[in-house]
Amino acid sequence: MNSRYIGRFAPSPTGPLHAGSLVAALASWLDARAHGGRWLVRIEDVDRPRCPPSTDALVLEQLARCGLLSDEPPLWQSQRDAHYAEALTRLQQAGWAYPCACSRAEIAQAQPRGHDRHAHRARHTELVYPGTCRHGLQGRPARAWRLLSTADLAAQQALPPLEWQDRRLGLQHQDLGRAVGDFVLKRADGLWAYQLAVVVDDALQGITDIVRGEDLADNTPRQLRLQALLGVQIPRYLHTPLVLGENGEKLSKQNGAAALNLTHPAATLIEAGQHLGLNLQGNTVADVLAHGVQTWRGTMMPASQSPEPLPGSATQKDLT
After folding, report:
1. Is 9 annotated as ligand-binding?
2. Beta pairing, strands 6-9 & 38-43
3. 44 is an annotated ligand-binding site residue
4. Residue 239: beta bridge partners?
5. Of 120, 184, 192, 313, whose CB is crowded by the most CB atoms within 10 A?
6. 102 assigned to a ligand binding site
7. Does 10 show up as a binding residue in the annotation?
8. Phi, psi for residue 56 in degrees, rounded to 5
9. 72 labelled binding-site residue
């Protein structure tokens, strides 16, 4: 087993797995196995009000029926508040995080004229923050904490550019200040933002390779910036094709995606493979997965080398 490759699947237990989430899970599992690495499962229940009781157990049961078993006990984000608080404190002390008093309505009203504030936005995206509270709250109570995203500060501290080589999509880049602005680290309701939680957990689990759906590619620049500021290892990324519904939109729990039909798990895995461009074969789950690993090795670009920590980067111990 390649100890230098650690992948993960990180579902949000807001509902049972559907066809789209199985495609992402299968791709990440196949990539880990094809590289002789480890594959972990992390339950991303940081947004607790949206996670019905027992849904996490259902998700784990669905994965198990498909033969997708974590190489370590699953990790729950809802049990990791102290780790996120430590990371936020470090960003505050370094001058990168600041309190914000703005409501969503105020941010929407501050958008440029002609901007459709009600337009559909991808998962974990936000309206571009206008920087209202960068220089103080002006007597108003703090609601959230945000990360400075300005390019001039990044240049002063010699941070790397926000670009990465996606293993499927190729060279990607984003102007974080224009596309997102100062993004949230801790929400007004006291819950931790996805971007901070995922970066902290990827670092603490030693994740070297992130394989996930293409809808999350837009999140990568925010995570790259946090990884650089926290001095942790930057993983490789591979964003997979999305499964689309009959209306042409991404299949998701939000638009009523049906739960996986696991009457015949092997057939369900074969169908998931088709969305990845893989012609999987086999009558049992074990046979389909074994064939999938061989097929993945022959069709997907391999991870050429294991990522190295940034100079002076934090270790897992540093973040605990």
Report:
1. yes
2. parallel
3. yes
4. 212
5. 192
6. yes
7. yes
8. -60, -40
9. no
